[in-house]
Specification:
Blueprint: H1 2-19, E1 42-45, E2 50-53
Antiparallel strand pairs: 1-2
Length: about 60
């Protein structure tokens, strides 16, 4: 009976961790001096081990 409880608890924990990984990061990259958007810039995120390339308006 106790083993079943632990199995269910572990399953629920793993499910909640897997569900928490769906997130979206949005932003805009601009030049510091001219404040114009930077298109084609590669944005790398260490925390999610991925990245994106900005569009024509500097959005990722």
């Amino acid at each position: 009976m106790m083993n079943r409880f632990y199995l269910i608890a572990v399953f629920l924990f793993i499910s909640s961790v897997a569900a928490a990984q769906n997130a979206a990061l949005k932003g805009q990259i601009t030049d510091e001096t001219t404040k114009e958007p930077l298109s084609g810039a590669y944005v790398h995120f260490d925390s999610i081990k991925g990245g994106s390339i900005t569009d024509a308006f500097g959005h990722y």
